[in-house]
């Protein structure tokens, strides 16, 4: 017995057993923590997918594109569900029909602004980013010895809609029956400072185009054709990306674009011949002053012939109404006094024919009829507004027009040279030189843009249209454009 009590055999095993108790506990706790890590990774995958899908949908809203489909919140939750994360009661495809006892999952989607690492949610629920927070709540087992009865396992992702490039030619779509909303002819030689051409639908090439200078790109939201020209257009290209932002979409619902102000005016005031002012061109034989009208009076149609000079008389509040159209023919001149801003309403259109001259004072010119420019037309700080089913045409001549930095009629038209809310076709073409400086907006019209075109007064020359068919050697540039008029490409990136 005494020897047995003195024996040390087995003491190491006993000590080992004693030591294994906490060791096994630590290993088991580590295994439980490992399961938390796996759940955390699953949650992060769900949050990433949901935030990215939501931001893609948000980019459609920002662009002002049509048929964006279901909401940002819905798109985010659908992709979270595909990774098995849903709120209780959700019925999205992929939602777990049953979870282990005491396990629950939640999904929260927010739209907000992301900047410098900070995400804020404005009251209106708008912004440039989507944040998705997911969480799995589960019971603690071995961790309960540390005082934790349940363990929340959260994950978060933020996807940001970024605007990397200014767009100088944007086709809003949809695609016409004949192909891409943006068509680029084989004889196109675009020149300018280099900027992307973008289609919010698809792109179509006639053949490989050429571009002068660096910085050009061709982008589309839904594809390109034909395949043999799409692969190597000679510039940066991407045919499957979010639609570009339409910065002027607010003009489509602007009150002054809904109706023609002078629709019901049927005045028939004739112009009386007067002594010609000293500023008239040599060879003028007849001069006719046009005085500002009230809403109840309008001048009849005016046909300016050879040797005739029609001019807007000077006034501090220049508002003119014409119940018909104004046509300036060869040898005729129409001029508005440059000493005051002008607002003019032409019920039946403006025509400056070959050989005719029109000098437009700074101001805003509305028409419910066609505008056709083929003579010599100049104007600084001018905005042309077309309504109804009007057509806009430049066919030869020397056109030199620039947009106002500040429009005296409406700040919504700052930087806008043409605001065309009509559905009539637009043709900017011909053998002359069209110097068009500013934003040209044709959201409901098919535009053919070509010929020899270049800017003047500023270097800004950008076009936004329903469809855009580029031919010839048009000049396009976003340099010096007002920030509020510039369209941007959009890309979506996970930033957190």
Can you describe what's shown?
By secondary structure, the chain is α/β, with parallel strands linked by helices. A hairpin with a 2-residue loop joins strand 1 (104-115) and strand 2. Helix 2 runs antiparallel to helix 3 (72-81). The longest helix has 53 residues, at 11-63.
Outline of the structure:
The protein is of the alpha/beta class.
List its traits.
elongated, 15% helix, alpha/beta, 27-stranded parallel beta sheet, 5-stranded antiparallel beta sheet, 496 residues, 4 helices
Tally of strands: 37
As an assembly, this protein is single chain
Supply the helix-strand structural class. Answer: alpha/beta
> What value does the Rg take, in angstroms?
34 Å
Ends distance? 72 Å
Total number of helices: 4
Proportion of residues in helical segments: 10-25%
Task: Give the strand content.
Answer: 35-45%
* Average predicted local confidence, pLDDT: 83
What are the low-pLDDT stretches, counting only 5+ consecutive residues below 50? 23-29
Major β-sheet annotation: 27 strands, parallel
Shape: elongated
